[in-house]
Amino acid sequence: MVQLVAIQMRWSAQDGRSPSVFAARIEGLLAQATSGLDPGEPALVAFPEDVGLLSALAVLPPALSEQSSMAAAMALAIRQRFLPVLYHRLRYRVRWARALLLAIQPRLAQLYLRTFSTLARKYQVYVAAGSAPLAEIPQSSPFHLEHLRPRGPAVYNTAALFGPDGALLGLQRKVALIDLEGPQGLDLTSGPLEQIQVFATEVGRIGMAICLDAFAPESPVRDRLARLGAEILVQPSANPGPWTPEQQADWLRGAWAATVQEGRFVYAINPMMTGTLFDLAFYGQSALFARDPKLGPGDCGYRDIGPRPGFLKVAKEADSEEILVARVPHPGG
Fold it and tell me: How far apart, in whole angstroms, are the C-alpha atoms of residue 2 and residue 202?
């Protein structure tokens, strides 16, 4: 048997007031998520997309968390780090938002990676650490600042996977970006499809597809993960829009369709971010899915569109903080 856990986190800018506040917030969630687990069975705990944006806030001045909008926070951060940001903007010929991320990259990456590595080891679980805006970094630990300096202009929405010993098992970069991640937003870089990989672990072969990457036909990422033999699909998500019936129906095209309808994966974990970050509001119901509908209760589904086969667990609310746990047969049989 294996244990699958989805953390639906309700965030706010206050969660990134400082490095210690960020680390304590993540530990609180992980401690709660693992409190009822069987230590004798392997467990995979998945956090939502963009949780690493809080580590960016945490290495910047605390005044940022009091700003009324993302644009105001970004403008203040650029003013307060003007010379290093200007250096990266001119050196790499990138927009202000990416230049800021490049300027703070070593401390941002170190906080994000060390926090999740330390906690995965402390709680003895596999951790899919949501995602963070990361430049090209070595896929190894320990995470020293000199090793985390940008090696080029690219900054990716990157998911990290850690083992129970705290080792960084691998990184996955988001391929299909939404408008918020594009040139008029965070100005992130699209990840190369050919770098998508699958990670062999005690809980099974894990494939990570960050939010839109798990949808078809927008991205071929889930096709590649299936070809590479992924058994568990992890889809960390952050939906910056209302959780309408239409949105819920659209969400069925992601991990649920890939696992239940198409049978490409044995299980899927879809942790969602909720709450507000400055002026941006996020909604969604986290869920755990199984290819075998007999493993689920049969009466689960998204809030407004009713039960569907294959739901193991689903969050009760679209704006709450919840933790979903399922104990299931090992995907390898």
Answer: 9
- How many of the other CB atoms lie within 10 Å of CB of 264? 21
91 — phi, psi (to 5°)?
-65, -45
- Please give the CATH number for the structural domain made up of 2-328: 3.60.110.10
Give the CA-trace dihedral at 253, 255, 256, 259, to 10 degrees: 120
Instruction: Count the neighbouring beta carbons within 10 Å of the beta carbon of residue 32.
Output: 12
What tokens were used for 247? 């949105």
Instruction: Assign residue 321 a region (left: φ > 0; alpha: ψ between -120 and 50; beta: otherwise).
Output: beta
Cα–Cα distance, 90 to 94 (Å, whole number): 7
Q: What is the pLDDT of residues 265-279, one digit of tens each?
A: 999 999 999 999 999
Where exactly are the structural domains of the chain? 2-328
Q: Roughly how many angstroms between the first and final C-alpha of the chain, as a whole number?
A: 9
Angle between helices 96-103 and 70-80 (to 10 degrees): 60
Residues 146, 117: Cα–Cα separation, whole Å: 18
pTM (2 decimals)?
0.95
